[in-house]
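Page 37, top half.
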Amino acid sequence: MPRALSQNLETIAALQSFCIFGYQTDDPLTAVAQQEYFLSCASRLMTNDLILVCADVEQEPAWGLFLISGVDPDGVQLQNVAGLTPDTINGLTFLRSALVPTPSKRAKAATAAKKSPRKAA
C-alpha cells in the first residue's frame, strides 16, 4: 500500500490555530483515502489543519480539500470539507465542524474555569 511522502507535504499557510497544506501525488485515490496513508506525515499534522490534495496526477488527476479530524498512532483521519455544516452570517458562508473546539476555544474555556470560584463542599 503506498504511503504519503513527507517531503511532498507543502505548507501553504501556518496560522496560530491551524495550518493549510498542499499534497500532490501519483498515488491512486484508493490509496490516498486510507486512514494510514498520511501516517508518515503525522508529526507535522494536527486536528483542524486543512490539506488540499491532488492525487492520481499521471492518470486522472482529482482534487480534494480535507479537514484533519484526528491524528493518532493508527493514522490521520480526514473529513470532507464539503460535508461540514454551513453557517451563513451576514451573507458569508462559514463551514463548521462537529469536532473538538479549536485551541483558542479550549484556552478560553480553561481561562474561564480558572476565574470561576469553586463552591466549597
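Page 37, bottom half:
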Amino acid sequence: MAQWQQLLKLDSAHQDQVSQVYHEKFPREIRHYLSDWIESQNCLTAPKLNSGPLLPKMTTRMHIIKNQI
C-alpha cells in the first residue's frame, strides 16, 4: 500500500489527475481496497488479465467489492 499512500498525499491538483486516470477504467475505491494485493503482484511475471482462468476470478472479486462500496 506504500505506493497508494504516496498518491493519497499528493496535493489536490495532482489528486484530480489521479482521479481522471482511474475514473472509468478502475474505480479509486477498488484500487484503495486492493492496494496491498496490487502492489504485491509481480507485473513482469503475472499472467495476462485478458486470458486464462484469472479473468473470471478477478471479475467476480471486482463485482463483490463494487457491491460492498
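Margin note: The mean pLDDT is 76.
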